[in-house]
Amino acid sequence: MPPGGRMGGQYLTEEEKKNQPKITPELLKRVFSYLRPYAKQLLLVLLCIIVSSFFSLLPSILTGKILDDGLLKQDFKALVYYIVLSLVVTLAGSLIGVGESYINTWIAQHITFDMRNQMYSHLQKMSQKFFTSNNQGDIITRMTSDIDGVKTVITNTFSSILSNSITLIIAMIAMFQKNWILALVGIVVVPLFTLPTRKAGKQRWKLTNESQQVNDEVNGILNETLSVSGQLLVKLFGKEKHEFERYEKANRKMISLNIKESMAGRWFMMILKTFTTVGPMLIYLVGGLLMMKYDPDLTIGDISVLVSLLGRMYMPVNSLLNIQVEWIRSMALFKRIFDYFDIPVDIKNADNAVVPESVTGDVVFENVEFSYDKSKKILKDISFTLNAGKSIAIVGPSGSGKSTIVNLIPRLYDVDAGSVTFDGIDVRQLDLAFLRNQVGVVSQETYLFNGTIRDNLLYAKPDATEEDMIAALKKANIWDFIEAQEKGLDTEVGNRGLKLSGGEKQRISIARIILKDPTIFIFDEATSALDSISEKKIQDAIDPIIKSKTSILIAHRLSTILAADEILVVKDGSIAERGTHKELLSKEGVYRELYETQFSKALLEEDTVSELEQYIWGNQPGDEPHEDD
Ligand code: ADP
What we know:
Helices cover 65% and strands 9% of the residues. The protein is α/β, with parallel strands linked by helices. Bound molecules: adenosine-5'-diphosphate (ADP).
């Protein structure tokens, strides 16, 4: 009977006390709604618990018979009979207990299965806002440990409440039936036992808490330093010794706490033993007195049955006293999970969502306003038109709202005011799956799933043939690299594509978009953070797309910008200027400033860009961009 295991513990922490859920009938109803589909199995569990509790108490009751009818009457046959009977019922009780725990586990697993699926599909409906504003760790915890906790609640908490209550009830009935005075004596001594238990338990709980903290610390160090990027940092900074010392220190602290903790258990057992003998002695004393002076019918067997039953009451009483904490914790767990279920789905399919038969790809932003949270307006009055087949480059200082603008097209977020239309239909009216199928995004942060290159390509187009894939990879300028790999298309990209360089990943993700062949292509700083060779390769892959497809590109490289039909200059969430490169330069405004600080620097770094520049300006003599330099 451990007074508080390593997980949880007997007492609520301050934080748990503060976050105690209000246990309302609605909450209980909701919890039980998950049990309802398994009502039949639950009934069976209840039956098993009743029978096995009874069977487990029966040997105690039979000790009276063993003493009175067997030993005292010197009847060997009766003695053997009751002994065998005791053994048989014990065995039967245990067998039923096994069956019970099987059904119980089955129910718990099925309930968590239901909950996990429900949670996963709910989370998938959450908008991007949810994922950016919630810690990824929290989301995963909700999916894993919290729902796992439910399993424990069902297999441990619920079933422990049931089986302990039933055992207690049966034991009490049996005691009162034997002798009500002795039964009362027995009940009076129960607190004598439980009070020290609780006190000792509290001390141990404190230690458990402390060691939990140290344990977290140790885990923190492990997570930090044994991760791919953590190790890289440790190695590059030569911090191996430092990290080892840090780990060793925390490890040592843990050992001493663990020793203290297990010794607290020993003290506790000692106190427990002392007090558990007080109860029986009292019953022997009062029982003896009754038997000798007032109640000649009372037998030695009866007294020993009462002593034995009293012994069987300690554990259930103690468990039930602690169950309150577990109960609150369980309810808090359910509440946490339900809170997640209750987060409204803010971006969902319209009731009569439209699926157009064919699309051209015109995108119109009309007086669009947007904010991530109400305190700060990110986009103010954004209006522009992107005609099918044309391309727009969005430029502007970092944080001005460029990515936000493009994220509104596939409805990663919804506008606060104004509208975004696709082929004349408000994107909020379009079928969400259809809309997202029309949009292909290549962002700076490329994400490849763990798997092969082929897997990653098929993610975009499950029925793509080998030829389709190769053609796309060629267009994305990455086929040569893949062909040179031993396993070709079946090369593993590694966890999140870590085995590939940034440029390689980027080009694979471009191939993925080419395969998807959306109506609108969006390149969100696809070439930033790359070396100039990679950038050139990507540029060569992107250029033909920009020239032939409806596309929006966010860029800070002149070469990319020049390929677009129109340039929008965004500043502080508004469109500050728009026009062609030439028009914008002559305005002497934001664009000119960007050009002088950002673009021309890039220009100096790259011959390729100046080649392009030359090409453009070469066709328009007299319009030299550097005239003011
Ligand atoms: P840009 O693409 O021009 O660099 P963004 O569109 O990414 O700018 O961001 C515009 C502003 O919105 C920035 O101030 C940024 O901090 C803020 N922002 C971007 N994403 C989020 C988000 N998920 N939640 C809250 N604020 C955000």
